[in-house]
Amino acid sequence: MKAFVVEKYGKDGARAAEVPEPTVGDRDVLVRVSASSINPLDKMVRNGEFKQLLKYKPPFTLGHDVAGVVTRVGPAVHGFEVGDEVYARPRDLRIGGFAEFIAIDMDDVAPKPASLTLQEAAAVPLVALAAWQVLVDRADVKPGQKVLVHAGAGGLGSTVIQLAKHLGATVATTANTRSEKLVRSLGADVVVDYTKEDFSKVLSGYDLVLDSLGGANLEKSLTVLKPGGLAISVVGPPDTGFAKQLGAPSFIAAVMSFLSRKVRKQAKTLGVRYQFVFMEANGSQLRELGALYDSGKLRPVIDSTFPFDRTLEAMAHVEQGRTKAGKVVVSMVPGND
């Protein structure tokens, strides 16, 4: 089958290749991929940014989002049948959405939301799971709380705005001038145009900030929290909780503690908290999220769609910052562009 694989770590390390079809384990569903989508995590994995923690062995197939049709099920699989339309974020070390077929553990798979096309569904899993795991699992957002999400027009930000509103929060976001109408349509109550204003000068008293930019933006985010508030980053620096999540040895936990010492110290001084979140595959959460898409509480935001044979161009489109809003989808269906 055709796939896009990481042959070696680095910017130029991905290429198209012919690879064997996946082996289907007892608990696996084999999915004919209809569409996938591009995530910043694809670039990070390709470049080897997590190679000390996620032991991928090149060549391996890239791609963290999948929507498609089940073509085979393992003998221990229950709840899925050949012909089912499904979507998933396959677990780490078993990614491979940029391919014609992928074998996925049944616990990572969920029925595709009925209201979405396969191409729309492919834009959902990673960002929707990240939003759920930040807002529900980590922050336990309640009605009336104040949430700030940066880059609200992005794939993650646009999903977080909608889910936070569904949970009853007052939502602020940062966006540029051209994106203000979009983020307000998604539910943002307060929009700070970062081309004109410094969010840290106009916002205060927030319960939660979700940062996807890092660096100085994360440091300023700490200052808009109320006492006891929580800043969560999806780009780092990683903390000891991440090492524990991966089951990493103690020396890795020590390294994580060292990497996050500056921001944790700043947070402590301000009387607030900091956590790093690296989302995990979870089919049961995707089922809950699917119901929210079908009820109209959530909707995917798609920037553009590329045909499968232009997957590397789709990745470059995202890396070069050419995305105007939402996700870039890669489709197996001819004629999408």
Q: How would you describe this structure to a colleague?
A:
The protein is an alpha/beta fold. Helix content is 31%, strand content 26%. The chain has twelve helices and 16 strands. The chain has helices at residues 40-46, 118-121, 125-138, 155-166, 180-186, 199-202, 216-222, 240-246, 250-259, 261-270, 283-294, 311-319; strands at residues 2-6, 14-18, 28-37, 60-61, 66-73, 85-88, 101-105, 109-111, 146-149, 170-175, 190-193, 206-211, 225-233, 273-276, 302-307, 327-331. The strands form three sheets. Strands 3, 5, 6, 7, 8, 15 and 16 form a seven-stranded mixed sheet that branches. Helix 3 packs across helix 4 (155-166). The chain is globular, with a radius of gyration of 19 Å.
Brief synopsis:
This protein has 337 residues and is of the alpha/beta class. 31% of the residues lie in helices and 26% in strands.
